[in-house]
Protein 1
Amino acid sequence: MEIEKFSSRHLLKIRLKTLYIIFFFFFSLLTHAEENVVVVISMDGVRHDYPNLLSEGGFNLISEKGSVASSLVPVYQSSTFPTHVTMATGVTPDKHGILHNGFFDRNRGFYSYSPDASWIESEPIWSLLERQGIKTATYFWVGSESDWKGTKISYSKAPFNGRISEKDKTKQILDWLDLGPKERPRLIMTWWHGSDSIAHQSGSTNTKVINQLKKQDKELLNLITEIERRGYWENVTLIVVSDHGMSDVENYINIKEILKNNSIDSTLSIGPAIGHIFLDDLTDKELAISVLKKESNLIVWDGSQLPSNYNMFHPARTGDIVVETNAPNMLVTRKNSNPPKGMHGYNPIINKEMDGIFFAYGNRVSVNQIDKVSQLDIAPTILNLLDLETPSYMTGQSIELD
Ligand SMILES: [Zn+2]
């Protein structure tokens, strides 16, 4: 009798255990199917106020059904390479090392628009995820065209080709989303042309700028509609950002000429807003600082004394002397018969026209008008949307979207 009792109880236990196993198997299948995918689009040079001038496309739809920040504050120098690398790494340019689209490194020499990710000194988010076994995809995000310290991106488009249209990029994004749950990347990051080049040529408020943007706004709507048609929005979050805004310029300060006129030899790394001067002879420092200080519209710093909130001091890449200016002035090294009318790169603390955009739509995003956010918040936001911890070295915060 005792044995019979025992065995029936035992049988019941086994049955319960089997039920549990079956339940957890289906539960894990279900949760796996619901793993969120984050798509990040960066549109070059889209100033925070430009989407207000568009009414029929993707921006308008997200304004009504998603989250929009009043602006996205870029890092300084607010140029395409430093800003994209900040959004991908969650750290400021002094930490990731990409001070401008081109810069000089005392040990390695000149860097200029290089696809070589070994110049990036903080881990990009795609590498962080891939190391955890999470598939990622990039379509021309700065720094993603080569492996970072040997970690491969599962799906990456390289080399960069500016002729590839946003239509082609949309098609590829949809193809990636169409992959089965095991193959599908959970993070897709892509660069779009935005309105940068036309605003450089024509100025920040020329009607051509908005006309150029209209086409991409339409493509953005197409992407949203196609994801809807496939029924993927339950598992997809879309984030649309830009790298910087745009100001009009009309005064060009030739740093090379000023130094040459005073017989000061140096290696120059001059951006539109910030110029790094690496002196051949450090005993020229006082003279160089005094002649540069005579120039109006120019602020002059000893490289090691830069304000800490610039986050721009890198031991090998910051000049002995650093000069800076604000719009409508721009630093140059040569005369240009057709100089740009629009420019960026300026200090976002004092030039609000440098602010870009932040739009979010889809899973875990509710209708929301949010205050301004920082480019340092982008990586933590992506990690949060993927249910992953933000590493402690990232100083930004996940943006509240729901
Ligand atoms: Zn630009």
Note: The radius of gyration is 25 Å.
Protein 2
Amino acid sequence: MNKEPVPRAGAQPKYGIMRQAQFPPNTAFFRFFEELNDFLPLHKRKTRFEYAFDGTPSVKDAIEALGVPHTEVDLITVNGASQGFDCRLACGDAACVYPLFESLDISPVVKLRPAPLREPAFVCDVHLGSLARLLRLAGFDTLYRNDYSDNAIVEIASPGKRCILTRDRGILKRKAVVRGYCVRSTQPREQAREVMLRFDLRGAMKPFSRCIGCNGTIGRVDKESVLPLLPEKTRECYHEFYRCGSCGKIYWQGSHYAKLTSDIEDLRNAASAKDPSPRSLTPP
Ligand SMILES: [Zn+2]
């Protein structure tokens, strides 16, 4: 059954003079910017396209129906005005959807994502064990178990205490999820680089401060206190020891140390290779 199109009350369309008869019922327009296009089919990327809907869905519902998790979105404009996730779509609306602006101050408009955590803290889904170990190596508080259920991950992260890292955008569409990032790459090192860039973590690195195995914090201990636990050659060759406060694992600067140091430097360098150019707020 056809309905008459209902324009938004008081709306001032940005795209020229729009009359009700110009649009089929319940059609709006969307344009997604920058990396949000990763979530769209090719024919909808970096272009304005029509979106047909029933009733008056929120702009958040429409964005997620198009495949983009709300945790990826930092700014929405509808007919040129900044709007929150709960803005109701009306026929003829033109929505622009933007990701995080790294170098453009958008503080005068509605920012949708919460302020960054004072101390970065993550929970990785069951497929991101290697990423979790790299983040721990760099000193970031990162929970991971290979038997976490999706519900457990959401519960651990709520309410906004930790950021969920996942390649499953379905988790990020859940209402209870406040902080999250959909990891694009399938390669752990590239994944770590993505996370470092996305959350601007380079200056917050604290290498060798966390246990790679369990995420516990590591502290210096006297050699005498761990002597009975050390292999004979290690007792003879090494004099500086660290211990995980959670699982008790003992660390020293053995044969793996050079490799791990190299991994940390790779991360630090990758996280600084960033294009600083600001993004445009004006749709093409
Ligand atoms: Zn540990």
Note: Residues 257-270 form the longest helix (14 residues).
